[in-house]
Amino acid sequence: MKIIKREQLLSFPDIEQQSFYQQSKQQVQEAIQQVEWPENSGQLTIYPESGKKRGQGNGVKPIKFKFIEYLKAQNWQIEYEISPELGKVDAVFSQAGQAIAVEWETGNISSSHRSINKIVLGIQKRSIIAGFVVVPCRNLAQYLTDRIGNFEELEPYFDFWRNCGACYQGSLLIFGVEHDRTSYEVPRIPKGTDGRAKA
Question: What angle do CA 8, 111, 80 make, to 5 degrees?
């Protein structure tokens, strides 16, 4: 999987210059690059079929597995509750009482909004100092489960989130991701809820 877009919604240089932040950002980027299909192929190859009709397109749960697996190996805490009010995020990296969160977003557009809102509120409440959100770009989303949110759908709201967090000391970076290539020779990514599916 490759990163093709980056959008800095909140920025605070005192945080972003810390080695702790730089390390977490690098690990998130590396985790994105670990995402592959088929397994052990070293790249994400998508069966190019629209997900609009039942039984067509590709699932999303297996795509996330390698991302989470990599972060867990780097000592990120998985499914971590950042506060009782905000609930859990996909992963948190902690050091010296500071925490940085990441959300991998492959739900519908409402789910994408909730993930970003959770990070912004987490920064405002000082539960975390920074966050990353990973969302598919439209070119990938078209081949996934129908009605999945995408980077381009979120773009009109970027200024709103910037204004919400402008007076808070925190960092929020959105990554827009995409497949490496398409091919009719690979199997569709299975749809399901088991987290890791085989071809």
Answer: 80
Predicted model pTM: 0.91
Q: Using CA atoms, how far apart are residues 75 and 89, in angstroms rounded to an integer?
A: 15
pLDDT (tens digit per residue) in 56-110: 889 988 889 999 999 999 999 999 999 999 999 999 999 999 999 999 998 889 9
3-state secondary structure of 157: helix
Backbone phi, then psi, for 80, in 5-degree steps?
-100, 135
Q: Are 181 and 188 in contact (CB under 8 A)?
A: no
SS3 state of residue 120: helix
In whole angstroms, what is the distance from residue 131 CA to residue 172 CA? 5
Q: Hey, which residues are catalytic here? A: 105
How far, in Å, are 20, 110, 156, 164, 191 from residue 115 at the CA level? 22, 9, 16, 15, 22
